[in-house]
Design a protein that fits this description.
The complex is a heterodimer.
Chain A (H helix, E strand, L loop, with lengths): L7 E9 L6 H9 L6 E2 L4 H4 L6 E2 L12 H6 L2 H16 L10 E7 L4 H14 L8 H5 L3 H10 L4 E3 L7 H14 L5 E8 L4 H9 L29 E9 H6 L6 E10 L12 H13 L7 E5 L6 H15 L7 E3 L2 H4 L6 H15 L1 E2 L22 E2 L7 E8 L3 E9 L1
Parallel strand pairs in A: 4-5, 4-6, 9-10, 9-13
Antiparallel strand pairs in A: 1-7, 1-8, 2-3, 6-7, 8-14, 11-12, 13-14
Helix pairs in contact in A: 4-7, 8-14, 11-12
Chain B lengths: L3 H16 L20 H15 L5 H4 L5 H12 L1
The chains are: A alpha/beta, B mainly alpha.
């Protein structure tokens, strides 16, 4: 960051997750160590035989929050993004802003897959004439961003980073740059995903990426544990209102945290497997700390990507060791996917919000299901109960998010 | 075969489902675009749903002639007959 760059703060938070329909309920459930995973009871689970029959579905269904017309015109992924964006915007005090200075950046890993596949079923079974005209605007990957842009009149730019499970974090990094570079004063940034559909489940299962612990869903997501066997598919959205500090101060906004910096890198190693030494992860973290003009010595908390896959958790540990070294001794590491499951394109946004709340409340959330920590894990994992963070001073925390394709992102937040 | 009144109320349900407009606002003299503020994508969705509901075919070239709700009711009634 250059000395003249604008500082960026977080003034609004919103989410809908497997733990709750808003930020407060999700965070309370996370601090309580609650699992959002359960057996799937939707009718399709009985119609198609799948090797995995559980997931972490949204705690509050979008259809119970939105109008009937909204649910008909928006793919479930866009429904989640609108719900979370409305909460974040309200939380920010619904700021007065010149609409051409307001941006929206919403990442998604998969996009409107329910719309796409449902429309294909309609086409095959009932013919082209029955395919609805809103199919394309609902299935396109940028539909969630467009929905948020339309809702709030965000005219400074609407962007959709697509980098699998790093998408939500990349969206925040992009929003940071939009404000720093002067393109916008406020950006609604985050991620969304609604991919609990039989096809992604079958596909992820074919990769052996998901836990098959069908008989015990709540104990299936177990990052860093010796018995981990893959991630648990989750869904939902997380949205942040990012704002130029001077803009926020001028309107007397409540500031949740400062977004100090971001680091992005690519493994360029394999389409799905992480680079085992954690080199790309380490570069993203190092770049993020430099961009934030801070050092590992200041970091007290990290919300890890930690999806509960056998190789991914180890690669991240190696990357953390490379980037943070002995400073890991004073960094409380939490893996909230143990409770939320893996929200794919929403993960980086939801977990950034958890990072901000941990710094605010000076309390690192627990990582559940770590009954027997993998001896190859070297970081200090917060297990079972929340752990107090230092009681004095501003606190610095990191959020990591990585995606298939070798995408690595790290974000740095500081409490106010 | 549905009566024109039945077609009107069926159409009103489709419009309500798509747009949220109350069914009693969907009256024969209302223009889809000027009075009900229905855009072309919503209009095509309404047409697809009406074709299904009333078992008729409404070719795209005819849709542009359906200016009012009454036009659509008459078209569907005739197509059914």
């Amino acid at each position: 960051m250059t000395a003249t760059a604008r500082r960026v703060v977080v003034t609004g938070l919103g989410m809908t997750t497997p733990l709750g329909g808003d930020v407060r309920s999700s965070w309370e459930a996370a601090l309580a160590g609650t699992s959002g995973a359960a057996s799937i009871t939707d009718s399709w689970i009985d119609e198609i035989e799948l090797p995995i029959t559980f997931a972490a579905q949204a705690a509050v269904k979008a259809v119970d929050v939105l109008t009937r017309q909204e649910t008909k015109r928006l793919d479930p992924s866009a429904q989640f993004s609108v719900i979370a964006a409305r909460e974040a915007w309200k939380d920010a005090g619904a700021p007065e802003v010149d609409k051409v200075r307001l941006g929206s950046v919403v990442g998604t890993g998969i996009g409107g897959i329910w719309t796409l596949l449902t429309a294909y079923d309609t086409l095959r079974q009932r013919g082209a004439r029955r395919v609805l005209p809103l199919t394309v605007p609902m299935l396109m990957a940028n539909s969630s961003t467009a929905a948020v842009s339309l809702e709030f009149g965000a005219g400074a730019g609407a962007h959709t980073p697509v980098s699998a499970c790093a998408s939500g974090a990349e969206a925040i990094a992009y929003g940071l740059e939009m404000i720093r570079s002067g393109r916008a004063d406020i950006v609604i940034a985050g991620g969304t995903e609604a991919a609990i559909h039989p096809l992604p489940i079958a596909s992820f299962a074919a990769m052996h990426a998901m836990s098959t612990r069908n008989e015990d869903p709540q104990r299936a997501s177990r990052p860093f544990d010796t018995q981990r066997d893959g991630f648990v598919l989750g869904e939902g959205a997380g949205m942040l209102v990012l704002e130029a500090e001077e803009h926020a101060r001028a309107r007397g906004a409540r500031i949740h945290a400062e977004l100090l910096g971001a680091g992005l890198s690519a493994d360029a190693h394999h389409i799905a497997a992480p680079e085992p030494a954690g080199l790309g992860v380490s570069r993203a973290i190092g770049d993020a700390l430099r961009d934030a003009d801070t050092t590992a010595a200041d970091v007290v908390h990290l919300n890890a990507h930690a999806t509960s896959t056998p190789v991914g958790d180890i690669a991240e540990d190696h990357g953390l060791r490379l980037a943070l070294g002995d400073d890991l001794e004073h960094i409380a590491v939490s893996a909230t996917k143990s409770m939320t499951g893996h929200l794919l394109g929403a993960a980086g946004a939801v977990e950034s919000i958890f990072t901000i709340l941990a710094l605010r409340d000076r309390l690192a959330p627990p990582t559940i299901n770590v009954d027997d920590i993998d001896p190859d894990i070297s970081v200090d994992v917060v297990r079972k109960d929340p752990r107090p963070l230092p009681a004095e001073g501003q606190l610095v925390g990191l959020n990591n998010a990585f995606g298939f394709g070798g995408h690595n992102s790290s974000l740095v937040f500081r409490s106010v | 075969m549905a009566s024109e009144q039945e077609i009107l109320s069926g159409l009103a349900e489709i419009v309500n489902e798509e747009t949220g407009l109350p069914t009693d606002s969907v009256q024969a003299d209302k223009s889809f675009t000027d009075d009900l503020d229905i855009d072309s994508l919503s209009m095509m969705t309404i047409v697809v749903n009406a074709e299904e509901k009333f078992s008729v075919r409404i070719p795209d070239e005819d849709v542009k002639n359906l200016r009012t709700v009454g036009d659509a009711v008459a078209y569907i009634s005739q197509a059914q007959g």
